[in-house]
UniProtKB/TrEMBL annotation:
Residue ranges that the Swiss-Prot or TrEMBL entry lists as coiled coil: none
NCBIfam families membership: spore_ylbJ (TIGR02871)
Database matches in InterPro entries: Gate_dom, Spore_IM_YlbJ
Pfam families assigned to the protein according to its UniProt record, in alphabetical order: Gate
Gene this chain is encoded by: ylbJ
Protein name stated in the entry: Sporulation integral membrane protein YlbJ
Annotated ranges, domain Nucleoside transporter/FeoB GTPase Gate: 46-143, 223-319
Domain of life: Bacteria
Keyword tags: Membrane, Transmembrane, Transmembrane helix
Chain segments annotated as transmembrane: 51-74, 81-100, 223-243, 296-317, 329-347, 384-401
Top-level taxonomy: Bacteria, Bacillati, Bacillota, Bacilli, Bacillales
Amino acid sequence: MKRNWEAKWKTVLLASAATLFAFSLICYPKQSLEASIRGLTMWWEVVFPSLLPFFIVSELLISFGVVSFLGVLLEPLMRPLFRVPGVGGFAWAMGMASGYPSGAKLTARLYQEKQLTTIEAERLSSFTNSSNPLFIFGAVSAGFFNNPHLGLVLALSHYLGNISVGLIMRFHGIWKEQGQPKRRPRPFSLPYALRTLHRTRLKNEQPLGKLLGDAVRSSVQTLLMIGGFIILFSVINKLLYMMHLTEQLAQLLGHLLRLAQLPEQLDIPVFSGLFEITLGSQMISQTNEATLMEKAVATSFILAFGGFSVQAQVASILAEANIRFQPFFIARLLHGVFAALFTYLLWKPLYVRAVGGERANIPTFLHAAPGSVWDEGWRWLQQYGPLMTLLFLCLYIWLMVKAASESRGRP
């Protein structure tokens, strides 16, 4: 009876939320369109061209057996530290290099390949999702803060926080594994790793063209889903602001900011960052009432939390593989706390002493941003990213049409 009552309340709540969202779109059509265009621009210029190569290469590496090869080599490291197989090292490295939500996609793929158990997949997805260095150094540090020196503090805090989450989540589900035979890490053996590589490749007898086509289709389909979530949450964030709900909800966040000894003026920027990290980071960088260290701590938290937009993307990917989302959400909260704490601890040794105490107190909009590698990479994406997106979308359409014609031609 109680469960039935809860189900009815959930139905009413979801229906009411969807109705309110539809009514808001009707009341604020211009603002909704602007927010949609902003989300589409971010996906078109940056997200698609930056993630697509990693997704395609990851699919090919799994098919060719390279991931199994690395899994054997990394088993002595990943099993004792994080209680996951060695293949988790590949997902971890690719997740840090390419950013959200690559770690979840690779975890789901490895789980579907039966290289991970359910508990191991939940552990692995909790610490293999992070912001990529290009976004941290290029967009946030050089782009929003005009201060490339800030990138080292943000990046190191971000990845140290990720490692800390992995060390904590190694205890996740440990009680469910009681009574099961323990897997001892296989000692490092290059010959055995090479044999595993060869056996995995022989299992997949598909031609190279078929493998490449499948990798492109799977990657583009995932990125189309990601683009939809980016646009959706960009609109939701804007509608909350137009209905003055952002100000009301941000007041509750202001109490937590006071406990963390951060200025209340960061409440709306941080609240916006809880939905979409790009907008939140930009708004935090423009808050003149906070010091640079306070801005860095707040930015570290929302970069690690990932935003509800990223979490919705991950939830969709994990749901397709029947992997629970709850451990991932708890890990994001832990990651946010750890990243903010590491930023505070590393501020003096990595920023103040390296840049100079006086300069560290200058408002960030007065900093000149030299042309660093990350900044140039970010500018390259904004300039040539749309062309790359268009070309691969055309390739995706051609592959889908070709696959449909081949299926119709079969007897």
